[in-house]
Write a structure and sequence with these properties.
401 residues, 30 strands, binds 2-acetamido-2-deoxy-beta-D-glucopyranose
Length: 401
């Protein structure tokens, strides 16, 4: 080291000095361990401040570098709500979660609406990664028991994070959604393990809105709500190899709530399994909305005892009664190909209920074989659905041409 410095001193050539510095600067210059910033990892003391300090150091690292925040293994870090905001100087940041991160229970949160527990905002080139060992635990039980869900935070939110990578994490018992992705372009999300009881309210696995070019693959999700929900402003999402259940399936929507104009297009769901889910693949919209959901493919999907395997519901209206409206979100070009398995449906296994004024068009079903455990229930039901079906069990004779 000293030798190198001397050498640089003698040569006094700027580029060489720079080169030597880079070589001498150990990885500790770009790696920020939360325990070096005061995090105790004892599971009792709040470590949020230490997390935010480590983040600030990594984020403020000199222009163009790559830096890393580490949450080390073998410890449990109790953190209150934390915000990791950009824009950062560093070209990219890795947030490595090897240990466990646990939220405070409901009682410690007070009554203000915090919105989210762990919040990444406006960070370019962010990777949040783990090795599948640490757990991100929202202590959701304390919220679900509370009854009133209106203030419950999303466990982990990514907002306006382009070129995002999330993988190798275990999420459990979120207060509300486990992960929300909003306003992010280009994201790869893989190898996540998300679990919450089937009865837990609003615990979506991954909730997406206003985002494009997402790739979600190889995740196991057991939740009390949608495994994946795709909301307005979203396009080009490729979802594959997801095991969902229990949960409410993979949903596009709900779209068009309170007259909203929503647009969703280019959604491809492939090689996914739904095991004892309430729904399978679903498109849902409210009466009175506007916009569209189009160019959607569900292919090679397996159902095991799913309650409602295939649904288009343009009369979505939970917990209340809604009047039918003149406008609606237009659903078109939806292809279902290679759907197999069993359904617990008491009624229809395939239910395509489209708007009277804005019917569904270009609905294609081919190679479908879904057996209902109740022989009488294995039916297809259509309202205002136009398209074609080939090689389908149950027979789908209700589509209009
Ligand atoms: C980066 O450093 C500046 C100046 O010290 C400070 O104002 C800013 O808040 C820091 N950014 C973060 C994310 O901590
Ligand atoms: C996502 O994965 C693709 C294919 O492996 C890769 O080309 C792309 O750079 C990745 N993007 C991000 C943001 O990680
Ligand atoms: C889906 O499964 C088929 C058949 O096993 C395979 O050919 C295809 O590559 C798979 N696609 C993805 C994205 O996993
Ligand atoms: C079953 O189907 C009938 C006929 O379409 C419908 O009136 C009824 O509401 C359905 N029941 C359920 C539980 O979906
Ligand atoms: C189909 O879905 C519609 C809209 O939710 C519902 O009203 C109807 O009862 C369902 N029909 C069957 C046969 O399940």
């Amino acid at each position: 080291m000293v030798y190198l410095l001397l050498l640089c001193g003698v040569v006094l050539e700027l580029s060489i000095v720079k080169c030597a510095r880079t070589r001498l600067g150990s990885s500790s210059d770009t790696t920020f361990d939360v325990t070096k910033f005061g995090a105790t990892g004892n599971g009792r003391t709040d470590d949020a401040k230490a997390f935010e300090s480590a983040w600030a150091a990594a984020c403020n690292k000199s222009l163009g570098t790559t830096s890393k925040v580490i949450v080390p293994s073998g410890s449990t870090f109790l953190v209150s709500s934390v915000k990791f905001a950009g824009p950062c100087n560093s070209r990219s940041i890795t947030f490595e979660i090897l240990g466990s991160i646990v939220a405070h229970p409901r009682e410690a949160w007070g009554n203000e609406d915090v919105g989210e527990w762990i919040f990444f905002h406006q960070v370019e080139g962010l990777s949040v990664v783990g090795n599948g060992q640490g757990v991100i635990d929202g202590q959701g039980d304390s919220w679900w028991r509370h009854g009133d869900q209106s203030n419950s935070p999303t466990a982990m939110r990514f907002s306006h994070c382009n070129n995002l990578h999330v993988s190798g994490l275990k999420h459990m018992n979120s207060q509300r959604n486990h992960i929300s992705i909003n306003g992010c372009n280009h994201a790869n999300i893989s190898n996540l393990h998300i679990t919450a009881p089937g009865t837990s309210p609003n615990t979506d696995g991954i909730d997406i809105s206003s985002s494009t070019n997402l790739n979600i693959q190889d995740c196991v999700m057991a939740t009390g709500d949608d495994c994946i929900a795709i909301n307005g402003g979203t396009s080009s999402v490729f979802i594959s190899r997801i095991t969902c259940g229990p949960g409410h399936g993979i949903s596009i929507g709900s779209l068009g709530k309170n007259g909203k104009h929503d647009e969703v297009e280019g959604i491809h769901v492939e090689n996914c399994s739904f095991i004892r889910t309430q729904n399978g693949v679903r498109i849902k919209s409210w009466q009175g909305g506007a916009g569209f959901a189009k160019n959607i493919v569900f292919s090679n999907i397996n159902f095991e005892s799913a309650d409602n395997p295939v649904i288009i519901d343009q009369y979505y209206c939970p917990h209340q009664t809604c009047n039918n409206k003149v406008s609606g979100v237009k659903v078109s070009n939806v292809r279902y190909s290679g759907l197999h398995g069993t359904s617990m449906a008491k009624n229809a296994t395939i239910n395509l209920s489209c708007s009277e004024t804005v019917p569904c068009t270009g609905i294609l079903l081919d190679n479908v074989n879904i057996k209902s455990v109740d022989a009488h229930a294995s039916l297809a039901h259509c309202t205002n659905a136009h398209g074609t079906a080939h090689a389908c069990t149950p027979a789908i004779n209700c589509l209009k041409s």
